[in-house]
């Protein structure tokens, strides 16, 4: 559908006369569809109502999407607290920490956009760290009753199913008439390889259920007769999405802009009727959404621990060209080892459509090339696929040339974008193209209509089966120590003191973040996994983690190698200085921590003998870190 040509929302709209004259008629009463006259005696006999009404079809599709999401997350549901994504487990711990923060916001009135419960005493700017308040706050009852681990897997499940359902709803009401077409498009948008890749780690990215409605409302603005109302409605959707994920919101705005420009470039006359309502509504949206988001955005860009630009670690993440033709790792035809050099990591497989679907997408564009909408979608999908290649274009991990992203990476807002994720836009474009193709094939009026439909279904199976979703790969993780769950830590840690875990919390050691989350952040910890300005200086470029910690690096190396170093007095003094800076009350090492003995021996060189309490080694350091000491 083009922006200025909506289809009717009901069959009556499609069948309405198109003449210029208006004729008023009085229709006879419609017969009751539940009765038919009997062929012999004229008495009405009951006729069964149709079983598959449109409403029931919709409910069935929503149920299928939910079952598919449960299938994908089934291995985590077995033990939410004891299982985590294989290969990499830091992001789930961070998300669980943010979910616990939402509990404190609701139940304790804590400031929502900044916290010093981790990275104490510097704290963390939560607006700059995707604290998912729009997801975490509604999940507070589940988090309180069942814990943040259950909330995490619930969000992942609802994110996948909700995104598919939302696209199905918008496609079936405003783009295509065939519910099968809408179901195919919604399925791919909700369960594409890119969505499955992020499902293990990033519920904020896969929770895209507002995006179809944002796109729909933007297109409505081009023909709106009530631009003020429509602009205000769009502003509310934009504000809610900003508290789920701002990057995805930015992608949506860019995609809508490129699509509309592609339409206008083909049919310039549309601009004459579209610019006025579009301009008015966007102005209203900007004013209202800007007012609602003004303070949170000030905190994000100018508040404490604000940073400018992403860490160099992720700024040059790009898709390999070959990744568009390979199936994703968490799919039926995918293989982790085959994809190892085609994506930055397994949580960023943002293309991976497979050969069959890639060829089918090209074929759809060629087949429907006469349609303005299809050409505009093709331009949009290709544009963002090219941007997703990043600063260096590569083929099978061999660098070919400099990519166009090199020219854009330092622009405001774009300097905070991970370029590989532009592939998510291409994913949605392909989903819409699939829906349009099924719709056109289903409506063909040919003698071989059944054959055409059979071939359409066969083509979809051939394209989508290799990338069919599989259960997410998981691994076990250490349980929260009984020392934490039994509240034994409360004997040591005061309100303005910290519990220091060994190894020190960092991007690669997030267990202490899970410990804190399991207590609704009742105690503070130093370090952690987050984005912050370098060296803790507000306004500097971003990096993962807080200020560099010499002892943190030392203990991380011991944990990785199992080798106990020989320490000198300078290192002991440095460790004490860091403990005082963190206002540490107790240092804790779980007995089942890998390389626990070398770690214990290293810490004992620094602050003396440990004492076992329940399932951890404990060092009470309050006398060493008190202000008097």
What can you see in these coordinates?
By secondary structure, this protein is of the alpha+beta class. It contains 25 helices and 14 strands. The chain has helices at residues 11-15, 54-72, 74-77, 90-108, 133-136, 140-146, 148-174, 179-191, 193-199, 203-206, 211-221, 227-242, 246-266, 269-302, 312-315, 355-367, 372-387, 423-442, 449-464, 482-485, 511-518, 550-561, 569-582, 596-607, 622-625, and strands at residues 35-37, 44-46, 83-85, 114-115, 124-125, 392-395, 398-402, 474-476, 498-501, 531-533, 542-544, 584-590, 611-613, 616-620. It has a 4-stranded mixed beta sheet. A hairpin with a 2-residue loop joins strand 6 and strand 7. Helix 2 (54-72) runs parallel beside helix 8 (179-191), helix 4 (90-108) runs parallel beside helix 21 (511-518) and helix 12 (227-242) runs parallel beside helix 14 (269-302). The protein starts with 10 loop residues before the first helix and ends with a helix. The model is unreliable at 3-38 (pLDDT under 50).
